[in-house]
């Protein structure tokens, strides 16, 4: 045995060889340690060899860790450059797959609202159902990773009983052939973003190094993923802010445009503008055609753009839209098929419909500001209509008072009446005829307005319950017909017009009016309500019966009562035969030709009339009364 003092020193070359062994991963241990055998015994040599192996293993681990860290840092830099979320998730999975080297790597994103995990990116998988996998809250290995926020792993998932299994998850795992799984959380702050998985298709015990490495990579990935989310939110916020600024700019522009339109419309009211001016102003602001209608939805004013179509017709849909707008005062959008009209708004004052505004199609979107502009225009049109009607009503009242003073006045105020008439554009000395117009009370104003445009130089207004026209016409028949043709289309109701012969001077007009009104009342009382007549033709009846209908009915019933009752009871028309017989100069042959029947039939009917009225009815005095009664009956039945 060699004593310590007697031991040989270890040669320097052997020590250097041992150090080279530690640095060289490929060097053979036995050949490097052999030179030490001469200086060391077996036990010492074994100890050196054992320590050498530990040092080499530690150095190998450090080298691998360095490589992993280098790869990890390289991956982090690469991931930090990505801004697209889907591309980032795919790159995360690809880098993790390369770092850990498992068969399958995939990432499940965590839904904060439903607490579900949804597979977003995979590498190494082949089963399509696995790529669509959703993990319910708390289920499977993924659920445990989320709840604990720490890595979880298993060498065999089928035998892993520490978590509640889910049939759909288990089926997807089996379809993919996965056995061992490692899952690490992607956590940013206090928020779980998802779970990163590494899996093998055979049993594998994951080493601490693999777990730490995947966890470190997941931490880097979570930071980058959170940054991408924040950047996406920032971009979305910036886009929303840009859109809000654009909306604000558009709104401000629309408000400025609306303010200018409102000012123009207000000025139109103040300076006595018309509906045409409103239409032009609104059309210029909206770049759309504008049509304004009156209370009867007849065209009142319009303004068109170069691209606008023909006039919009007032269809049933448009009328229905006007009624809807009438109750709210708001714009109502129309179907595009309504002949070019896009929007309609009713022109109302309180609950009275004064008209409507129709706006056509155009490029400018009708936002809230534009709709309020259209509604404001409707209010302006209503003000103009009320103003126009107030002026017209005042003028009609003045003209009505002037007509009343002319018809009821005396010569003491002759000059005053002439001046008042001249202020209305009428030369009183030229008026020679009175015309009475009977229409329902609620249509008298429309009749007066219609007559205001009939011909210049006349006066029209209400007096004594009817519309009176003072004109310079010379022929009563043509004057009555022309007045009726003027009034009836605008009133839409039956119109009875009675005219009388012209007078020598306007001072005689008052004396002519009362018989004229009595004639109108007589005809109206007998049911004649829609015709134009010359009062002179009915003076005999006025002389006989006045204006009372009761006397006419009583006289007719007393003379022709039996014949009238026979016609009612037997559905015959003996009265018509009698009237035709009288008109045919009491000739049965002429009456037969007029009635288009055989003379024997006429004689038989005359015999029946004789039986009913008695044989004396053909005597001169009874025949006169029968003739008058037949005439009055014909008038009463509207002949």
TrEMBL record:
It holds the Pfam family GAF_2. This is Helix-turn-helix domain-containing protein. Residues 84-235 form the GAF domain. Belongs to the CdaR family. PANTHER family: CARBOHYDRATE DIACID REGULATOR, DNA-BINDING TRANSCRIPTIONAL ACTIVATOR ADER. Signal peptide: none annotated. It comes from Streptosporangium vulgare.
């Amino acid at each position: 045995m060699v004593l310590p003092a007697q031991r040989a020193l270890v040669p320097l070359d052997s020590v250097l060889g041992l150090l080279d062994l530690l640095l060289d991963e490929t060097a053979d241990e036995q050949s490097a340690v052999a030179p030490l055998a001469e200086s060391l015994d077996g036990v010492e040599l074994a100890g050196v060899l054992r320590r050498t192996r530990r040092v080499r293993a530690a150095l190998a681990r450090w080298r691998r860790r360095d490589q992993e860290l280098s790869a990890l840092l390289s991956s982090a830099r690469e991931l930090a450059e990505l801004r697209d979320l889907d591309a980032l998730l795919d790159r995360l999975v690809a880098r993790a797959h390369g770092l850990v080297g498992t068969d399958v790597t995939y990432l499940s994103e965590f839904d904060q609202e439903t607490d579900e995990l949804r597979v977003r990116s995979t590498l190494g998988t082949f089963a399509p159902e696995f790529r669509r996998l959703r993990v319910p809250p708390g289920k499977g290995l993924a659920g445990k990773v989320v709840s604990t926020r720490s890595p979880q792993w298993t060498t065999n998932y089928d035998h892993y009983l520490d978590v509640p299994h889910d049939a759909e998850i288990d089926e997807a795992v089996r379809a993919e052939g996965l056995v061992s799984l490692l899952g690490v959380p992607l956590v940013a702050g206090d928020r779980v973003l998802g779970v990163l998985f590494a899996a093998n298709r055979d049993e594998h015990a994951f080493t601490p190094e693999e777990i730490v490495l995947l966890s470190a990579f997941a931490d880097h990935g979570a930071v980058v993923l959170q940054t991408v989310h924040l950047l996406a939110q920032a971009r979305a916020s910036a886009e929303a802010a840009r859109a809000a600024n654009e909306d604000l700019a558009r709104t401000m522009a629309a408000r400025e445009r609306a303010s200018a339109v409102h000012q123009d419309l207000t000025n139109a009211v103040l300076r006595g503008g018309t509906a045409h001016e409103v239409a032009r102003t609104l059309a210029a602001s909206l770049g759309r055609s504008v049509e304004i209608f009156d209370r009867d939805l007849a065209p009142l004013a319009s303004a068109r753009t170069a691209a606008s179509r023909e006039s919009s017709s007032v269809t049933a849909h448009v009328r229905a839209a006007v009624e809807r707008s009438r109750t709210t005062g708001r714009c109502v959008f129309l179907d595009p098929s309504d002949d070019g009209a896009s929007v309609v708004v009713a022109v109302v004052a309180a609950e009275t419909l004064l008209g409507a505004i129709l706006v056509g199609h155009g490029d400018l979107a009708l936002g809230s500001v534009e709709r309020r502009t259209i509604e404001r225009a409707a209010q302006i049109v209503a003000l103009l209509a009320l103003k126009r009607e107030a002026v017209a009503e005042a003028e009609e009242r003045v003209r009505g008072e002037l007509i009343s003073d002319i018809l009821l006045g005396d010569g003491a105020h002759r000059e005053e009446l002439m001046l008042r008439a001249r202020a209305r554009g009428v030369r009183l000395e030229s008026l020679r005829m009175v015309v009475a117009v009977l229409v329902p009370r609620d249509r008298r104003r429309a009749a007066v307005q219609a007559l205001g445009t009939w011909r210049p130089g006349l006066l029209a207004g209400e007096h004594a319950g009817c519309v009176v026209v003072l004109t310079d016409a010379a022929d009563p028949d043509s004057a009555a017909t022309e007045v009726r043709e003027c009034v009836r289309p605008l009133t839409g109701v039956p119109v009875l017009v009675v005219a009388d012969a012209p007078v020598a001077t306007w001072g005689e007009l008052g004396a002519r009016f009362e018989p004229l009104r009595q004639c109108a009342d007589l005809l109206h009382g007998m049911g004649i309500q829609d015709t134009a007549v010359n009062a002179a033709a009915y003076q005999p009846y006025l002389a006989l019966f006045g204006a009372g209908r009761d006397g006419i009915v009583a006289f007719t019933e007393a003379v022709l009562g039996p014949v009238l009752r026979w016609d009612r009871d037997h559905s015959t028309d003996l009265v018509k035969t009698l009237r035709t017989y009288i008109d045919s100069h009491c000739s049965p042959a002429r009456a037969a030709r007029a009635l288009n029947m055989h003379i024997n039939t006429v004689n038989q009917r005359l015999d029946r009339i004789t039986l009913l009225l008695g044989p004396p009815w053909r005597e001169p005095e009874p025949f006169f009364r029968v003739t008058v009664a037949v005439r009055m009956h014909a008038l009463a039945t509207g002949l």
